[in-house]
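Q: I'm writing a short methods note and want an example of a predicted protein-small molecule complex. Could you take the sequence and the SMILES for magnesium ion and return the bound structure as tokens? Please keep the output block clean; save any remarks for afterwards.
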Amino acid sequence: MTKKITDLLGSINIVESIGDLEREINAIHFDSRKVETGDFFIAQVGTQSDGHDYITKAIEQGAKAILCERLPELTHPDVSYFRVENTSKALSVLAHNYYNRPSDHLKLVGVTGTNGKTTIASLLYELFRKLGYKVGLLSTVTNYIDSKVVKATHTTPDAIQISALLNEMVAAGCEYCFMEVSSHAVDQHRTADLNFKGGIFTNLTHDHLDYHKTFDSYLRAKKGFFDQLGKTAFAITNADDKNGKIMLQNTKAHKFTYSTRAFADFRAQILEKHFNGMLLEMDGIELWTNFIGDFNAHNLLAVYSAARLLDQSKEEVLMKMSELKSVAGRFESLVSPNGVMAIVDYAHTPDALKNVLQTIDQLRTKNETVITVVGAGGDRDKTKRPLMGNVAAEYSDKVILTSDNPRSEDPDTIISEMKEGVSADKLRKVLAISDRKEAIRTAIMLAQKDDIILVAGKGHEDYQEIKGVKYHFDDKEIINEIFNQ
Ligand SMILES: CC(=O)N[C@H]1[C@@H](OP(=O)(O)OP(=O)(O)OC[C@H]2O[C@@H](n3ccc(=O)[nH]c3=O)[C@H](O)[C@@H]2O)O[C@H](CO)[C@@H](O)[C@@H]1O[C@H](C)C(=O)N[C@@H](C)C(=O)N[C@H](CCC(=O)O)C(=O)O
Ligand SMILES: Nc1ncnc2c1ncn2[C@@H]1O[C@H](COP(=O)(O)OP(=O)(O)OP(=O)(O)O)[C@@H](O)[C@H]1O
Ligand SMILES: N[C@H](CCC[C@H](N)C(=O)O)C(=O)O
Ligand SMILES: [Mg+2]
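A: Understood, no commentary inside the block.
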């Protein structure tokens, strides 16, 4: 798709430029390895390396235009250079313009917060399809262009991919798109130029401190998403989360709250809890849902609030909501031929793990043994490891600490860091088996009829990443295999 550079720059403030500004370019890239003849290369300062070091490489591969924060000492006569203050921010404008500003032609709603993003975005996608619309979804599990599946690699794709996918949605006739907005994405300006119709905040608890360093800067990254919303947008926050109000402090958007406890614009209450669902009172009307766990009452309420603010009728929304099913890898239960229940859940933060274990605790009769199999991801926040170890031991009868995605780290080191959070009196409950399949097998061997095994952390993931290689690994598949041996 050939484009004139001047048509792409839009609102970007160019501090300095060199060369032919009227030039046409073929494609835009921030990765020099993808550059081909006639392309535009954007040099970004990253966490591992600096894109400015690859400008020469990009030109050797045929780049005809360069966007950078520092001009190279020697410039090439056949190349145009643009210097800006922040190339990542500028990239989101360039990408959006390159793909004809797709978010202007969709009702785009972003969901942010530590936990619940995938659940809420996916349920909104399902709900709006049931309401008869063509819809797009950008989520950790899968991206959808209406019914077409596009594999997801990130919770929030990079700026170029986002605009490319939104553009495909517009071309396919989608009216709505629901997307997860991760704190990494906000911090790296992946969503900076998008035109959001609305934003939803779920909650803020411990995660990603490897990247954000402090809880306060993690909070500021999330808040940055709401600061960026326009005055015609809506911003919905969870009034039951202690940071819910702070999120909306500086937004220009119309503010709304949801709560299961206090006064709020949208309210719900849990009337009954069962192993196959919950009876809720949602905005004054009784609603049976196929979801379990107090946190899911919040997720469903956020879904309901957004649907109402997107002008959908109360009765129709509630009717379709009662048909919604849980998202892949979120509290999915399997039962063995001899009556052992295994629950697969994506809980990979201390708060999520605690919520899931408390949910199990509320539903059990107390005669069962609860066995938790859990690990923590490598090359991610190390400070959540002891907290997760502690939660697992506190709320389970037995714990098998194991590997999640060790990535470049030693699995036994991760396990010992999780174990450090277990108090001395609970250590006897804890086993360490780093091979995840063996850990699951051991839990199943230890379990008797009616016992409950929670296999946490990987949910829908169908791989295990070890030293840069992704091996096929699917918790549900393995549980089924061992259940049926
Ligand atoms: C820490 C992080 O977020 N890293 C993301 C970031 O990469 P980076 O800034 O570290 O890149 P870098 O390797 O330092 O390179 C700097 C620049 O040089 C360029 N480069 C590099 C090498 C080369 O040969 N040529 C070249 O041009 C790179 O393309 C880049 O523009 O930008 C890349 C492009 O957008 C992302 O793919 C990459 O995600 C990595 C793979 C990642 O694992 N990210 C995770 C932590 C993440 O983003 N997770 C959140 C979910 C979190 C949640 O649970 O909520 C997500 O949104 O998925
Ligand atoms: N509203 C919520 N509050 C707390 N915990 C939740 C909530 N919703 C889901 N969880 C727990 O968190 C896990 C992850 O849920 P989900 O995938 O929806 O979150 P996410 O925000 O998309 O996570 P990620 O950051 O990995 O994209 C679930 O498996 C469940 O254990
Ligand atoms: N989006 C999260 C997912 C974590 C899932 C867990 N299985 C892990 O690999 O740590 C992250 O990248 O931190
Ligand atoms: Mg997600």
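A: Remarks, as requested: The first strand starts at residue 3 and ends at 4. The chain has three domains: 3-94, 102-321, 332-483.
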